[in-house]
Write a structure and sequence with these properties.
This is Desiccation-related protein PCC13-62. Keywords: Signal. By secondary structure, the chain is mainly α. It has one domain. About 55% of the residues lie in helices and about 0% in strands. The chain has 13 helices and 2 strands, in the order ααααααααααββααα. Strands 1-2 form a two-stranded antiparallel sheet. The protein is globular and about 50 Å long. The two termini are about 25 Å apart. The chain binds 2-acetamido-2-deoxy-beta-D-glucopyranose (2 copies).
């Protein structure tokens, strides 16, 4: 409650400042539009490597903008050619998103991304509250890759919902609506594929796919620390669990701060780690790293 109150006060202060002075605020359109590059880079690299064995450095080096090559990303062992094809299409969509954002704002170079097996297995261990043995490998097979894909696009989606009402400029809102639409579509496809398989036991853990998603969603709620904004596939809600949404089936919204807490895995926007060993790039993410 106290934190919520403080954030409202800060928000009001920011809005007053932006209406009374021309000074650039941290939540300016430019900053809000560049922030999602952090997640789009992660998704682009994870999907590109997973489906082709190569990343932006090979496919669109100019988009990496001189940022370091991701750690530990690799080709996944897909058996199902349809899943691989879908992931490849997601990769191309993310490349488009990077281009669309960078055509609008200058943005920043690709941050250092840790997409290694251990980076994912740490998140999964945290979600289970104990180390899984053998440790979870996102690249091992179709179902593991889909579970790993459950981790990130949804977080981006909630960020776009959160950014939209803060944007001043109609063309900024149009860009974010376009990004949000396709991110939501990706999330729906991932959830749909997992939903069909929710009773499957993930080898060799003997734990169902549904339980994996529930635990990941609970972890994200816990790390974000602003209440329930996430629902696994086995959770029971009045409107079902194929898609996540509030009591009116409206998409949940998250602030950049909440997103950083989740993707850093630290629950703290000032403590980088997880997929971003050196933190995110851009004005908003850097403003928390002193
Ligand atoms: C809105 O943003 C676009 C680019 O993002 C810019 O070209 C345009 O001038 C802005 N319009 C207003 C009214 O600020
Ligand atoms: C976040 O980390 C900083 C130190 O980097 C610490 O001062 C602060 O208390 C932490 N916040 C929470 C909510 O744990």
């Amino acid at each position: 409650m106290a934190i919520h109150y403080i954030s409202i006060v800060v928000l009001i202060a920011v809005l007053v400042a932006s209406s009374t002075a021309a000074s650039e605020t941290i939540l300016s359109d430019v900053n809000l539009l560049e922030f999602p590059l952090n997640l789009e880079y992660l998704e682009a690299e994870f999907f590109l490597y997973g489906s082709t064995g190569h990343g932006l450095d090979k496919i669109s080096p100019e988009l990496a903008d001189g940022g370091p090559t991701p750690i530990g990303a690799k080709l996944a062992k897909f058996n199902d050619i349809v899943i691989r094809d879908i992931i490849y299409q997601f990769a191309l969509q993310e490349v488009g998103h990077l281009r669309a954002i960078k055509n609008t704002v200058i943005g920043f170079p690709r941050p250092l991304l840790d997409l290694s097996q251990s980076s994912f297995s740490k998140v999964i261990d945290k979600a289970f509250g104990r180390p899984l043995r053998p440790s979870f490998d996102p690249y091992a097979n179709d179902i593991n890759y889909l579970i790993a894909s459950y981790l990130i696009p949804y977080v981006g989606l909630t960020g776009y919902v959160g950014a939209n009402p803060l944007l001043q400029n109609a063309s900024s809102r149009q860009l974010v609506a376009g990004l949000l639409g396709v991110e939501s579509g990706q999330d729906a496809v991932i959830r749909g594929l997992l939903y069909e398989r929710r009773a499957w036991k993930v080898n060799p853990y003997g734990v169902t796919v549904g339980e994996f998603t529930d635990r990941i969603s609970k972890l994200r709620n816990q790390l974000g620390n602003e209440g329930v904004k996430d629902e696994g596939l086995d959770e029971t809600f009045s409107s079902g669990s194929i898609l996540a949404g509030d009591k009116y089936s409206l998409a949940y919204s998250r602030t950049p701060k909440e997103i950083l807490r989740i993707v850093y895995g630290s629950g703290n926007e000032t403590v980088p780690g997880g997929f971003y060993p050196k933190g995110g790039n851009g004005h908003i993410a850097r403003s928390y790293l002193k």
